[in-house]
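Note to self: the last two entries modelled the partners one at a time, which told us nothing about the interface. This time every component goes in together.
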Amino acid sequence: MGTTLKSGAAILIESLLQQGVTTLFGYPGAAVLPVYDELYSSPVKHILVRHEQAAAHAADGFARASGRTGVCLATSGPGACNLITGIATAYMDSSPVIAITGQVPTNLLGNDAFQEADITGMTMPVTKHNYLVKRTEDLGRVIKEAFHIAGTGRKGPVLIDIPKDVSVSRIVWDKEKDTVNLRGYRPTRTGHRQQIVKAMDLIRNAECPVIYAGGGVIAGDASGELVQLAERMMIPVTTTLMGLSCIPGDHPLNLGMLGMHGTVQANSAITECDLLIALGVRFDDRVTGKIEAFAPHAHIIHIDIDPAEIGKNRQVHLPIVGDVKIVLVQMLAGLTRGKEHDVWRRKCTGWKEQHPAKYNDDGFLHPQFILRKMSEILGADAVIVTDVGQHQMWTAQHYCFRYPRQLITSGGLGTMGFGLPAAMGAHYACPDVPVFDVSGDGSIQMNIQEFGTILEHNMPVKIVVMNNMFLGMVRQWQELFYDRRYSFTALPPVDFVRIAGAYGIDGIKVESCDEIVPAIRTAIETDGPFLLDFRVEREENVYPMVPAGAALHEMIRGAGS
Amino acid sequence: MKLHTLNILVEDRPGVLSRITGLFSRRGYNIESLAVGTCEIADMSRITVTAFGDDAQIEQVRKQLSKLIDVIRVSDLTATERVERQLALIRVAAGSGQVRMEILQIAQIFRASVVDAGEKSVVLEVTGDTEKIDALEKLLRQEKNVACRDAPAPAAASARSRIL
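The predicted structure of the combined assembly is written out below.
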């Protein structure tokens, strides 16, 4: 057998194929030309975005919708820098993304060469790990390690920076020789047995237990086990924004979302519970409000794969480090049906009945009402992606999610502009269902150039703009906490139907209530992309709301309550 | 708040130190002193960091450091039995023979040795705990003009680990 020489670029593409990568999102440039030359004749599908930030969000959206690692590619310097917001977004929500960047040749590194940026230095705080590959011989191993790191333990983004000469150089490559052996990376997956026994005792003896479930449950594919635990032990469940779809929205034990814009029943249950079972969560400030007043009467069990999350924001009584799915299976093996918690559950139901999620159907165009209609019509037959702001909170409050990964949203970083490109990624993860991107007139304009990418591939991405001519969430804070001084939050009117039209995407402007349902139906029935420009009530607020730094029970319930 | 000594075993790779110091500054902790050196295990380095913090803060730093892929092990030596020595090099101005004699006398008391002597100054090397080195410095300052003092380095667990 003769030895054939392979370039770094060829090794890269072959390694990606080996990892099961079928689609990647990218933007070419000088330093990645050798890689693009390999892609030209490769079976990997490359989606050309219109801005590198969108490539990172699309890879992230793909990862969140599929559970598999998403990949994005950019050139050195500005290309790499443009990825950073997307990488940071993936990092904050623990999403497995591989970012590949070109770099100036190794002999120019550190010389301020044309389009040089120290991208490994810049992304150190927002990646799980990153690599600057200085020898072609290391490339195969680095890619294997990167995928292993991104997709195991607490998932997260990994960046691989490849100087141009490393992708050009040709070497004899034996791909079987590249193995992953990371001495410093051995995530704990199985829960400590004694801790699990203690947790089971606490669960058996609790009178008013609540499960607080987060993104870790979805990332760890543990939704089934979570619902089993809740049903077997009759424990009400509240979820974070990131955990929203881990239990069906209409499940009788589901209290809805907790936190700043959480439901009254979820926040009340947290305040009154005697046992809090925290699963795959990090006690974020948007969830806990004033941390000392969060679950003040409860014993807290905290289960998480990341030991650094234990005790970071809140001291807990019983920590269990491990993969949430494995730990739940360990617990379920020892738990038989116990107390029914009738009194406690009736109390929770009582709160729910007294304070149902409010929306107005007075004939004006209210975003909450639109989302209710979308939820009725689309149900389980769509993936919902959101941008960031009021529309995001309304989606979380009013759409009834049915299965894990049905909602894709930027939680931790709260990145405006995330929605549209993430919807593209979600489409490649779930090609058979339409993807609805719920956005606002502020957020959509942060990556609006992706209309071009969406049309080019005729993706069935339906763009829903809640157009209130405001940066609504900031305006709401100005209204409530800054004496209605609307400092730079009003946006001039934009005709989104015409912008979409210029890219070749059809759309409808919706200005009255009776047009809502037909418009949603038209969007579904149209092949490929479609845009709905809802001219909603301008000064609608998101309620309930817990002001920043206040305790969860100090919520503002909004007018009429 | 007390001074903690963290012993960090890392892969000997470029950029490792920057990952560690970056983590400290990003999470809002100050490094008091830092020593880096090769260690008895091949391909690994040992980094010894001292930092002020309460137990919970330092535990959080320890966990965050452990998450770095290139970090193999982190231990907080503060509560464990350990040998801790600082090494200081002190340059003292010593123009006249009289002054020189006085400096040498002080050095003798503290068992510091002269590692360099020039026309206008001598360099003393001293090891010991912080109190001893501070006392020597104080005395020299009273006597003479201390021109320069090296930052004390916790040498116990880093450079000297081979001897252990």
